[in-house]
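== Sequence entry ==
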Amino acid sequence: MNIFVVIQQMLVLLSMMLIGYIVFRIKWLDSNACSRMSKIVINVMNPCLMISGVMGSESGLEGSMLFQTLILVVIYYAVLILLSGPVAKILRAKKEHYNLYKLMLIFSNVGFMGIPVISSIFGKESMLLIVFYNMGYNLLLYTYGFQLAAKSSLKEREEETEKKNGGQWKKLINPGVVACVVTIVIFLFGLDMPESVCTFFEYVGNAAVPVSMMLIGASVAQGGKLEFFLDKRAYGFMAVKLLLIPICAALLLRLVPWPAMVEGVFVLMLAMPVGSIVVMLATESGADEMECTKGIILTTLMSVITIPIVSAFL
């Protein structure tokens, strides 16, 4: 992979994040507007971007690539789950933050940031591969994710959290999961959509990239605190999550003669920052959401530097 191409793409995305940071600081955006726009990106734009990736043109993907991706998706989440406990112990996470560190390691920003970053590097052909990671993410989030969050909850909220978790399965039916299923169906059956339909999904989907990046910049502007940048444990966590794990994965995959795109998507997914959903889980369960906010902001900012470094090993 040409690292200079990756650097250029990350600089473009960084510029979009900078716009979001500025417009929030000058109060063109506020926290309420960001929250509403985030819902539009997650529930409308990103799903359209995924669907548009398999509409209107040949994807160039073979069945073997999809099978290889399915294997890597299982490996992806299995490895992160297995490593989450030891990493939290090595970093000497506080008792009340132990499961939060596990959450932050497992649940990366595979959708909100993963979709625009990886599609900008590999093109829309990679969209179908990204879909499988997002499906695995949703399945794991509403089962194991909520269980981990409940273990980090405050004692007085534990019973309330347990009651809430009973209804989390219903959340598996959401626009993101529906879009994943539609994308797979269109690809498997080779459905030929009218040009107007393809244009609609392309236009709406393309808006996901700049809008999501600007919202990430706005979230940094509204949530960043100076003390976040003084936490040594956070830097250790970033070194492991953003560099050590994906680089080791990239080196190991050199032993397997799989397509570059399949391997690249897998490694870059490992290099994604902490997902914003972790804060929502922590808040709902009564855990320390500020610890998660710190992890999200720092890993997002640092990923602009670490993703090009990781891509050099592909």
